[in-house]
Known about the structure:
Blueprint: E1 11-20, H1 27-30, H2 52-55, H3 60-72, E2 77-82, H4 88-101, H5 106-112, H6 116-125, E3 131-134, H7 140-153, E4 158-165, E5 183-191, E6 198-205, H8 219-228, E7 233-237, E8 241-248
Parallel strand pairs: 2-3, 2-4
Antiparallel strand pairs: 1-5, 1-6, 4-5, 6-8, 7-8
Helix pairs in contact: 4-5
Amino acid sequence: MIRTGCLSPSRFVIDDWSAWAPGLNSKDAWQPWPEVLPVCDETMPALTQMPAMMRRRLDRLGRMALHVAYDCHRDDATIIFCSRHGDLTRSLDLLRELADSGSTSPTSFSLSVHNAIAALFSIARGDTASYSAVAAGPDSVEAAFVEALGLLADGTPAVLIVCYEDRAEPPYDDFPETCQTAHAWACRIRSAPADGPGLSLSCRHNDRQMNISRPDLPGGLAALRFLLSNDAQHEHCTGSRIWQWQRHA
């Protein structure tokens, strides 16, 4: 549970970042921010960093997530994986299989759970360190950063945050909160001095409870756009909460 008003704006800096979407497969492609993000291209990263036997178990969502994770990972970083909806395509296939035959594939089921992508990443690298897999509705990206800031405050040297969503397919695409742009991004963050340059995230209660119009980007991509920009601040309203991202000179 995230309690509004209790999050202190601890400062952090970004050591490294990576992002991938169909047609946007390099840092140069993301800067300056692309005017139009692809929505229909079905391409996926090659993910040559992962052994082929394990790579074949991943669909596009997993390949996107691990592509950016491999790009930014260093051994001193604790990892947080973040996806609001997880693998909707695989979950939908399982539901259809269950309706048609009354059973499901154990392998497909094991890969549909929310931490499956993170688990495969750790297995492929022989990493026995802890990791987290976060899903918190419209607050998912902010929840991942809250977790990361808590780890940094406890003395963790660095945290790698991996955010990813795939394009929702019918019938889920009718829901306004589902993502229409396949994407994944990661950033590696460290603590920054409280009075020095850096970024911060804070939260306050939305007293007015006003109806918020649908944003031009999903929450995860809107956060990435701010992190890659020189903007002073970015606000994300999720109903009862208003998240404020700030850049400090």
